[in-house]
Amino acid sequence: MKYHDYNILSYSVDCREGVIAMNIGRPNQPEIANEKIIFSGVVGYHFKGAMGSIILDLEEKEIKEFIEKKSEAFAESYRLHGIP
User: Fold this and answer.
1) Ramachandran quadrant class, 57 (left: phi over 0; alpha: psi -120 to 50; beta: rest)
2) Nearest CA to 47 among 4, 83, 3, 12?
3) pLDDT tens digits for the chain (84 residues)?
4) In angstroms, rounded to a whole number, what is the distance separating the alpha carbons of residues 52 and 22?
5) Residue 38 and residue 18: Cα distance in Å, rounded?
6) Are 63 and 43 in contact (CB under 8 A)?
């Protein structure tokens, strides 16, 4: 995978356009240029402690599979925010 072991340096989210731009690089290897990854068609996201994180893998998945896998986390989030 091209971006394995890159660090997340920064990211921005455009909710209106459904775009996430992630700036990545290898801080300990300045000879390797920083890059930007653009995710489009985004309908939701959840980054937890993302800054400085190291990318191990990126893959595209079907939304149905993601929702099924994360259904308990969604339910807990709704509960914590008072959403029925």
Assistant:
1) beta
2) 12
3) 789 999 999 999 999 999 999 999 998 998 999 999 999 998 888 787 777 789 998 888 888 988 898 889 888 888 888 877
4) 12
5) 10
6) yes
Confidence (pTM)? 0.72
Q: Please count the helices (runs of H) and the strands (runs of E) in the chain.
A: 2, 3
Instruction: Identify the burial level of 6 via C-beta atoms within 10 angstroms of its C-beta, where 0-12 means exposed, 13-18 middle and 19 or more buried.
Output: buried
Which pLDDT value is given to residue 66?
84
| 35-40 sheet: strands from edge to edge | 7-14, 19-25, 35-40
SS3 call for 74: helix
14 vs 54: CA distance, rounded Å: 23
